[in-house]
Amino acid sequence: DCQVIIRNFQQDTIRVRGSSTNSAASLQAVFDFDNTLTQEMVFNDLVRTFGGTREPNGEMARAMPDQWWIHEFGGKDRIAALDWMLGTLRGMKVKCYICSMNVNEVIMEGLLRVGLLKHFQRSEDNRIRIIPRGLPNKGMRVRQNLSTYGVAASKAVFVDDDADNITEVAEVNPGINQLHCSAQGLTAMDCKTIVSHFQKAFA
Fold first, then answer.
1. CA 148 – CA 56 distance, rounded (Å)
2. CB-neighbour burial class of residue 16 (10 A; exposed 0-12, middle 13-18, buried 19+)
3. Which of 90, 98, 165, 192 shows the smallest number of beta carbons within 10 Å?
4. Strand pairing class (177-180; 156-160)
């Protein structure tokens, strides 16, 4: 089972500390892609499939059949759990982002194939909410995104399978809420925990 890392909240409820202003417009959920939204390491699997000589790209991702993508996301039942969680968050006006070391075109193709892309689309222009690579670590990338949209760290949840990423994000963004899943990605229970956090903290 996934381990929920507790930073500023109790294990059974992700309780936000900080501002008491419950503005849905200022809520963010930031997800890693590989081994978090997906169950498998898509980046490595694509590299291995195509000979291991270069970084994966959109062409590689588009070449893979639908069944391959379903497998990478852990099967139809797991995809349904993710769809429920992301759809519920979207209905609560929580903005969902991806912060990954994978390639944007690969991420978008994977989400499209399993029907989850819509949850990361901006309503105003349909652009996908992927936090750009470029900064040295995920902590700085998350901080830049929060700053850009004026979101307090205490009103965001960061989800990742990598302990180093969890640590970096916490150090750079004091007060941020986190869920540390296993290398098999989010479980149905994790999805419920994330939804419950936003329901209880901003009711």
1. 29
2. buried
3. 192
4. parallel
Helices (H), the chain: 42-49, 58-63, 66-72, 76-91, 104-113, 138-148, 163-172, 188-201
Q: Tokens in use for 45? A: 């699997």
Write the CB contacts of 136 (distance below 8 Å, at least 6 apart in sequence): none
pLDDT digits 0-9 by tens, 15-25: 333 333 444 55
Among residues 109, 36, 38, 107, the alpha carbon closest in space to that of 72 is found at: 38
The model scores a pTM over 0.70: yes
Query: 90-121: per-residue pLDDT in tens?
Result: 999 999 999 999 999 999 999 999 999 999 99
Quote the CA–CA distance of 177 and 197 in Å, as a whole number.
Answer: 10
Instruction: Single out the residue of 52, 45, 100 nearest to residue 72, CA to CA.
Output: 45
Bridging pattern class, strands 156-160 and 95-98: unpaired
Separation of alpha carbons 155 and 26, rounded Å: 7
